[in-house]
Amino acid sequence: MFSASSPKNVTEEVSAEQKAYLAKIRLKRSVILLTQGSIIVVFFILWELLAGWGIIDAFLTSQPSRIYRTIMNLYQEGVLFAHIGITCLETILGFLLGTILGTIIAMLLWWSDFLAKVFEPYLVVLNSLPKIALAPIFIVWIGAGPSSIIVMALAISLIVTIMEVLNGFIAVDPDKVKLVQTFGANRWQTFIKVILPSSFPTIINALKINVGLSWVGVIVGEFLVSKAGIGYLIVYGGQVFQLDLVMASVLILAVAAAAMYKAVVYLEKFLVKW
Amino acid sequence: MLLLENIIEVNHLGMKYHSLNGEITALQHIDFAVKKGEFVCVVGPSGCGKSTLLSMIAGLLPPTSGQILIEGIPVTGASSKVGYMLQKDYLFEWRTILENILLGLEIRKTLSSKSRTYAIELLRTYGLYDFEDKYPQQLSGGMRQRAALIRTLAVQPEILLLDEAFSALDYQTRLVVSEDIYGIIKQENKTAILVTHDIAESISMADRVIVLSRRPAVVKNIYEIQLTCEKRTPISSRNAAEFKLYFNQIWKELDVHV
Ligand SMILES: Nc1ncnc2c1ncn2[C@@H]1O[C@H](COP(=O)(O)OP(=O)(O)O)[C@@H](O)[C@H]1O
Ligand SMILES: [Mg+2]
User: Fold this and answer.
1) Which residues pair with B10 in a beta bridge?
2) B168 touches chain A (CB under 8 A)
3) What are the structural domains, with CATH classification, of chain B?
């Protein structure tokens, strides 16, 4: 008798070749991970030793052990997380505002072909303008504080978002639009049912780019406003020639930026389920 | 089947497109009628205005001359009597099959527990009930096209317009899917207009074939398709003795050049 389950068993049974293949892939992945880990470990050990032996000047290059002590000091003074927190908050607000506002403006431009045509040259000019040049204006208008810094981050990401997302909206397959229109969809329904969800990957991509851009805006803002935050620590450390503080801050910055990027990637997995 | 009155009347229809490079007359002086329950195919060379014709019947595009009557009433906008199927299934990948099938009801604001039950009943009848929570990419091409048809049927149209609905599929799948879709349309007693550039496909499915000329398109000829075969389906039609005769006639009529 042939049982119904026999073909299933055949497919579930992993052949020796398949096992070998999987093992090879796994091995390759481990080797890559191991190499990646070794590079960073070797880098820090060499740095520590070379500075310890006096081959490089620890005053100029700092040293992992001194960086560690600096971070612990900041922690014991109770200011470490305050600095990290304010910078992260400014960045998150900056890129969320940039993405949301950019998407809303892109929606208006999608809605009205007239507006899109009218504003096109202005967008092109604004896009090529280095937004950092606007920082002094924001500081004068808004005041030297976190608000200016957030506006700086927003300014950097806004125009790119508008252009990216608008292009995403326009690139939606016209036949998808035709489909909902055969059901009698109005412009708002067309936007909500087709244009926006179709452009979701584009918007997530804008979000990823905006995380990076917002960090630039926030750090530059903190350089100029200089009251608190990781950017402030870097500038302050530079001014008083404390490279330990500068290096420690850059290291923290690298970790925070990477963590935020990972968070967006995770958000994408969570939101884009199909 | 008893063919009642004309459900669609196309009177002296014409369409011109305008662009900076000039004016394109896509269609002119198009006259024909479709009876209730009839399956009509429109064949014509690529770019002659077949999609334009369907868009106008669906009320998506106002004609530049002439008019279209559906059940005696002039078409002025997207009609609730008409369902449309495009070349690709355009199932939205962010919606499950059930959510896709409810799309038309949502947009028309006619989603009620009754209409929902009707849609689910269609899924059950046509073997997609087990897939209602799946996403489109988990379905085969044929099943997706069937789901697209059910999405159209869920809003209970009288008339189905199919624009090259099978052209995106490979040859084998195309035969099976057209057999499948034809069966469903007949079972649901719908009137259908299928636009295609595939002569064999048109003969295999149609009660009548309307042949359009090259642009500016006019109706060149209308063929009543009468085939002697047991139980007529697209695949069995292809074996009928008359099939080849019709094919040759329409082929000559289309006057295909490279
Ligand atoms: N929106 C449009 N603007 C200008 N010309 C168009 C437009 N849509 C279609 N056309 C032209 O009208 C003709 C008929 O198009 P279409 O109805 O899509 O043909 P078919 O479906 O038979 O291939 C083509 O030559 C095409 O270039
Ligand atoms: Mg076409």
Assistant:
1) B32, B68
2) no
3) 1-75+193-258 (3.40.50.300)
